Amino acid sequence: MQRYFIDEAYQPNIQLTGEPHHHMLRVMRMTAGDQVFLVFKDQTSVKAEITGIDADSVQLKEIEKETFSRELPIEVTLASGLPKGEKLELIAQKATELGAHRFLAFPAVTSVVKWDNKKLQKKQQRLNKIIQEAAEQSHRQFLPQLAFLASGKELVSAFKDYDAVLIAYEESAKQGEQAQLVQALQKLTPGSKLLVIFGPEGGFSPREVETFQQAGAKLCGLGPRILRTETAPLYVMSAVGFYYDLLND
Asked: Per the database record, which ranges form the Ribosomal RNA small subunit methyltransferase E PUA-like domain (predicted)?
């Protein structure tokens, strides 16, 4: 059943226009009697039935609220040093499906990508569209967002908003560090916020790592294999999902 994120407050009877209406009418070719899931701004999720649809709008009524929770008990934010090509799109899409709560992108010291403000805005719109489609496809009850940060310093200033901050660090993996991610998950409680930072293709500079550590972040290995910049975030989200969805079910 199709799912739509609605940028409005919850109400049992609703009239939709814009993109959701276009998708229902032109793409899905829905008619009165068809059912969909609607997720409102306050994360209220309901099953709704179309009562009327025409060229201007679609009218729906609530059938029942969705009671089964599909979200992870902790909020995981993934911060990526700007990678090349379409790697950020892959991270955003797949990590959304795996339950990520938010995405941050920042210019790391070794980032090759250089975008001006106009291109950043266009890229951000595209990425958030990809995230929305992934959230709808995976039946999320929360719509993640991606934000571009101006610098690593701005990222560090956000550390205070999290209960734990980890640095996915290649050198830690080489040295066999395997406990930090598990220890962090064991200490976090429902509603806690976890930030995990990933470097671009060239990794982090020693100065960056030192700055992150001085601000309270902890080094974290992700197993014995060296992962690509677009693979590491998916490893983390898969591990978090296993820990909360399966191991502690």
From this structure: 18-62
